[in-house]
Amino acid sequence: MPEPLLRAESLQAWYGRAHILTGVDLTVGRGEVVALMGRNGAGKTTTLKAIMGLIEARSGRVTLDGRPIDRLPPHRIARLGVGYVPEDRRIFADLTVEENLEVGRQPPRPGAPVWTPEKLFDLFPNLAALRGRRGTRMSGGEQQMLTLARTLMGNPFLLLLDEPSEGLAPLIVRQMAEAVLRLKAEGLSVLVSEQNVGFAAAVADRASVIEKGQVRWSGPMADLMADESVRRAYLAL
Ligand code: ATP
Predict the structure, then answer these.
(1) Does the keyword Transport apply (predicted)?
(2) If DSSP codes are grouped into helix, strand and coil, which group holds residue 154?
């Protein structure tokens, strides 16, 4: 088996004295979409933050393309080609859509798709109509799309997407799923945390299911969909 693009082994994380991740093991292969699933509070957000270096108190091993990144600060990990999209939409509310995109612009990266505002407006047609609008006058779904679009302006080859469907209307959830599939078609690899089984089933090749800070089940997304006992044990149905 070729070395996966991202590998986390025995990843642990603490908030103060609270031991939140007690040993997360997962991989994301090149060009693969992996859904990190689990109930509220299972540790999905914490896992993405720990991979991105956003949690100081962490241990274990994380490699990107075989290179250890578990001692690097978030900006160095970002510079290596990892894009992180938090679940709370982080746009610059007093900048327009186009200005928000410019803030995210980075030089092209060998081996990763190159994004321009025009290409992103093609990916998110909703944003095209709003290009001159300020963030304060956008819906939650539009802000979520803009947060993702701005991260793509950094030309990452791996995306860490935290609950992109949360709080969005069904139509917007569908558009978000289509966007993730297009990112995969462009060659991006994605680790997406999700509680929405329908969304995960639509986008993911594989799933890792986390409970109480550990991955309890990993396998093809289709196997998870076929195995109701696993879904009942670890997911909110
Ligand atoms: P959700 O869907 O609710 O975001 P999650 O699976 O992403 O769930 P996490 O946000 O990773 O879960 O939280 C895992 C655990 O860590 C929870 O018990 C949560 O209460 C706790 N936790 C999260 N953030 C902090 C913090 N800043 N300080 C202390 N505990 C925290």
Answers:
(1) yes
(2) coil
Q: What is the pTM of this model?
A: 0.95
| Token representation of residue 64 | 């990107």
Q: What is residue 109's three-state secondary structure? A: coil
> In this structure, what token pair is assigned to residue 136?
């304060």
Instruction: Indicate which residue's Cα is closest to atom 20 of ligand 1.
Output: 41
As beta bridge partners, residue 193 has: 36, 162
Ligand 1 atom closest to residue 213's alpha carbon, by position in its atom list: 14
Strands 6-15 and 206-211, sheet pairing: unpaired
Residue spans of the domains in the chain: they are 6-234
Half-sphere exposure of 141 (CA within 13 A, CB side): 17
Pocket test for ligand 1, best of 19, 21, 44, 192 (most atoms within 8 A of CB): 44
Question: pLDDT tens digits for 120-154?
Answer: 999 999 899 999 988 778 888 899 999 999 999 99
| 85: exposed, middle or buried (Cβ count in 10 Å: 0-12, 13-18, 19+) | buried
